[in-house]
Amino acid sequence: MVFAILKRRMGWISLLLPLVLSPMICHSREGTSEFKAIRAMIGKNDSILVETAAGSPLLSINADKKRTPASILKIFTSLLAFHYLGEDYRFPTHFYLDSERNLIVKGFGDPQLVSESLSTIAAELMGHEGFQSPFIRDIVIDDTFFEQPIEIPGIEKNDYNPYNSPNGALSVNFNTVFFKKDGEGRCVSAEPQTPLLPFVIGRIKAAPFSHERIILSSETHENALYAGHLLQYFLEKEGIRREGTIRTGALNPNEAAHIHTWLSPAPVRESVRQLLYYSNNFMTNQLLIAVGAKVHGAPGDLDKGLRAARRFSRDHLKLTAFDIAEGSGISRKNQVTAATMMKILRAFEPHRSLLKTEGCEAFKTGSLFGVSTRAGFITRPDGKRIAFVIMMNTPGKSAEAVVKKLKLW
Q1: Which pairing describes strands 213-215 and 356-358: parallel, antiparallel, or unpaired?
Q2: What is the location of CATH 3.50.80.20 in the chain?
Q3: pLDDT for position 371
């Protein structure tokens, strides 16, 4: 279900380095036009590394030079989440009632909390014995499991692109609100499962209509408060009325009783499948920050996530030549060599079914202005599989164009 929801929402070294070739496989291909074309495509600011299934190098150009990886970095963050959180881990959201009938909602970074989730949660809460008297006073949103606000390098503030949505411990619909204009020019929800709430109408009216979305801010807890307003909508549909306000606040477990836990229907493995397919920056950094909180304690923040990432890369993957500034690849401060990226790709190989697949290729792409990258696996007609990392850091050059030649080589 959430997979479908996300789909709707988502927006020269002048002399080439010597080629190290496998005599068994490549001598017959070295003189082909495709081979020559690939070599000609790789400039001084670009890198390529191709290996056999057994790890023997077929083609290596500038493989030891650091490049901007863009979104192929998400492969590394996925491995990080598998290691520290576990493939089957499901993010919880906890619900409490205190003696004054305030409903406290504590989030733990669920990257896939959506409108449909809140609808189900409201129905489950209505069935709880604590709601025999169906009213609450305040809805209190506790988003303290993540530091707020979290500054992600490369994320542009006050932007309307969904890849710039901020991270938070309690966020719904990927911290975005989608809307459209009806035939009379009025703003309405672009999603039938999500109402257009008065809470965001002012922001929507101030937004350029060409974008037809707003990004919820974390600086004023707007994202967390929106989650509270959306939950109220579904609670009211279930007959639970609110008589107080919607506000943020920290849970005091000594003053409130735990009444419900919502577990995300999608385990981390499914989140990884989706963030790789849709290249979702928000989901990726949610995992990074959640890892930081797991390893170094709450509240989760970028620094803790990066410390865990560097430990994992050093101690478990034995990586060098790797500079990581955040988890999604949106920052140009991320720098990695093709050789190091190949080690990451090899570590991910048991999970290659989670990569996007087209024909004989399972892959992840990355793009920033002037940057085009691609990493993955190609299965040849003879059944043999090769692994490749392509990082084009020359403006105007395309990793896709290189891989097309690689498939013919």
Answers
A1: unpaired
A2: 92-265
A3: 98
CB 220 within 8 A of CB 141: no
What span, in angstroms and rounded, lies between the C-alpha atoms of 64 and 338?
6
Distances (CA, A) of 362 to 34, 118, 312, 384: 20, 34, 25, 14
Please provide residue 330's backbone torsions phi and psi, each rounded to the nearest 5 degrees.
-75, -20
State the DSSP H helix or E strand holding residue 389, giving kind and residue range, or none if neither: strand 385-392
The mean pLDDT of 386-403, rounded to a whole number, is 98
Q: Note every long-range contact of 202-209, with CB atoms under 8 Å and residues 24 or more positions apart, other chains counting.
A: 203/177, 204/177, 204/179, 207/160, 208/160, 209/181
Instruction: Provide the CA 109 distance to its chain's centre, in angstroms.
Output: 12
CB atoms within 10 A of CB 219: 11
Tokens read off for 78: 């996925």
Q: What is the third-level CATH fold of 2-85+270-408? A: Beta-lactamase (3.40.710)
Separation CA 224–CA 168 (nearest Å): 8
Report which residue type is found at 172: V
Residues 6+ apart with CB under 8 A from 82: 268, 269, 272, 351
Percent of the chain with pLDDT over 70: 91
Tokens of 340: 């190091």
Q: Determine the Cα–Cα distance for residues 106 and 109; give it in Å rounded to an integer.
A: 10
Q: Where in the chain is the domain with CATH 3.40.710.10?
A: 2-85+270-408
pLDDT beyond 60 at 1: no
Where do we find the tokens 């949505």?
165
d(C-alpha 302, C-alpha 152), whole Å: 7
What confidence tens digit (pLDDT) does each residue in 71-97 have? 999 999 999 999 999 999 999 999 999
Residue 202 vs residue 376, higher pLDDT: 376
More confident residue, 204 or 42: 42
Domain 92-265: CATH superfamily, name plus number: D-Ala-D-Ala carboxypeptidase C, peptidase S13 (3.50.80.20)
Q: In this structure, what DSSP letter does residue 402 have?
A: H
The DSSP-derived string for 296-343 is H-SSB-HHHHHHHHHHHHHHTS---SEE-SSSSS--TT-EE-HHHHHH
Global confidence as pTM = 0.91
Q: Give 12-59 pLDDT, tens digit per residue.
A: 222 223 333 333 333 345 667 888 899 999 999 999 999 999 999 999
The whole-angstrom separation of Cα 151 and Cα 166 is 8
Could you identify the residue written with the tokens 């990258």?
373
